[in-house]
Automatic annotation (TrEMBL):
GO molecular function: carbohydrate binding
Domain Periplasmic binding protein: 24-283
SUPFAM superfamilies referenced in this protein's UniProt entry, alphabetically: Periplasmic binding protein-like I
Keywords, sorted A to Z: Signal
Localization per Swiss-Prot or TrEMBL: Cell envelope
Biological source species: Paracoccus tibetensis
Similarity comment: family membership: Belongs to the bacterial solute-binding protein 2 family.
Stated name of the protein: Monosaccharide ABC transporter substrate-binding protein, CUT2 family (TC 3.A.1.2.-)
Amino acid sequence: MKLRTCLAASALALAAGAAGAGEIAVIVKTTNSNFWQNVNLGAQAAMEGNSEHTLSFDGPAAESAVADQVSMVENAINRGVAGLVLAPSDPEALVPVVQRAYESGIPVVIIDSMLGEGAEGSYQAFLSTDNCAAGQQVAQRMIEEAGTTGKVAIMSYVAGVGSEIGRVGCFTEHLQENSELEIVGPLYSQSQMANALNQTTDILASNPDLVGIFGANEPTAVGMGRAIVQAGKAGQLVALGFDGNEDLQQFVRDGVLTATAVQGSFAMGEMGVQAVLDILAGETVEPFINTGVVLVDAENIDSDEAQNVLY
């Protein structure tokens, strides 16, 4: 509640006219991911018919390249963008530049991952999957499919990132509170598919009695799925993923993944840019906007609900 209170108290109408026509910069964790490219498509959709502003989209080569992302935000501030949509790769490292953007009169909307302490009041809205609720939802599906005893491995991505703290933390807590499942890990792939593949291969080899495994973001889940296939373990344990690119969709269709939790990535980009446009127009925006998650499995993958979030 502290986040929402601080945000609500911030200057939501920050300099409605401080930045008129100009560039809206969307800076994500990495451009080398279908998830973030789908965010870009949503951002472009929000700009359709808008002749007053232009859109730029950027991000580092890898989510772990935090210093590169900080530099991109600094460059955006220096060139005087009209607004900023940011998915912070590190909850602490991005705080000073977001504060600088605010002090420069640039509206900032944060998407996907929360910023750390000290950032409150320096951005106008936070758009995200409710990652804690999503983690609980995936954990409940794990219990329903795998039972309440045995080992479950957690293949995570970058330790300490806001989305990871909620997603993996609440997944873990739900398992611990509602089952006797033993947790192996978490292991951190640094959002690198090859790392996740190697880590999962090792986990499967050293824990042949696993009943379940959870890959907590797109590159991690893809690497996990490939390792399961290579180990000949498809269908032999409950494998749950997160995000919904073509690889993960095929894993669901092939029975490699029991299900994957898919965020509204397109909506995140579209609603994030729209929030900036609204702020620039002097309108009030909600301090927190939940972009939702759909648990996609073989039974619902062709439904409208699933197809609207898959990418």
